Structures are given as C-alpha cells and as structure tokens.
Request: fold
Amino acid sequence: MLPISPTTPLRVVPAQETLGDAAPVYLVKPASRRERIDFHAAMLEAGIQYQDDAKMRAVLRDAVRGLADTEADALLAIVDGVDALATANQPVPDALRQQFTEIEEAAIAGWPAYARVIAARTRWHATAPLIAASRFLLGWENVAAPFRRVGGVVPDDVLDGLPDDDVRAIGHAALAAFGVSEAERKN
Reply:
C-alpha cells in the first residue's frame, strides 16, 4: 500500500459507477491520529460501541451453556472449530458453517445478551461509514448538489442527497485509510 498523507485527499469513485469521466468523484481526507481519536469519540457519543470477536464468542458460549443441556459440549466444539479456523484465516467448510449458523440463530432467538451484542456490532458496521463520511468528506466533483461542511462535518441533509452506496463507499474509504483494526474498533 502506498503511504497516505493526511494533507492529500483520496479520490473515491464508487465501484458501481459506469459513467466514465462524468462519474462522481468524492474527495476524502485521510485521518490524522487526532482525527481517528475524535472519530472513536464520535462513535461513542452516538452510543455505538464495537463488539469484538472475543466478546461475541464469549457471549455465544454463555448462550450455548445456558440453552443446551446435554448437547452443550458438542455445540461448543462447533463454535470452537469455527473460531479456530477464523483465527487462522482458514476457510470454514460449508457443513460446519451451517451448523454454526444454526447455533447462532438459536442463541439470537433464545439468549437476549447474544442478540444485544449482535445488534451492537451490526449497528457499528452500519453507522461507522456514515460518521466517517460526515467527518472526512472534503468535497466532490461531478455532483450537481452544492457541498458544504458545518462545524467541521458534512451535515446529514447534504449526505442524504447522495446515493446510499456512495455514502457507504466514502465512509469505507475513509476507514480503510486510517486502518481501523479489530483492536482499534473496541473504542
């Protein structure tokens, strides 16, 4: 990966655009260290906290122990198997993935604590690109709408005028530029 400078905007062209030179181009500021801290603070202020894999698996294991009587050990072996493969960046066989999905679905339906951590992680993944887009979008080209920032952020009404996929692409580009790792997502 090439070095990224916080003073040189990234040019983001959403992948679904096939308009050639007329495609929207979004100018995204790579975040400085301070801005990354401010991003995490903004996420917390919005009530969004990342649930890391360790937290997810711990609550899933609690759910299996609480919901399964005689099958708990066998079900935990499935969870541990998927966890070990994921940790080693190895593919999970379809049959094992299906068993894990069934365990997860039962845990979501029957163990409120697991449903809450799933919801929190889903909320993080849905909200992070929006907050990143609002904080790091500097402008655009080939977009008819006027651009503005207020108090250092792009207001919601401006972002609402863009296609949802474009806003997500802007946010994902900003997040990728400052390398939000699993450890950093813990807020």
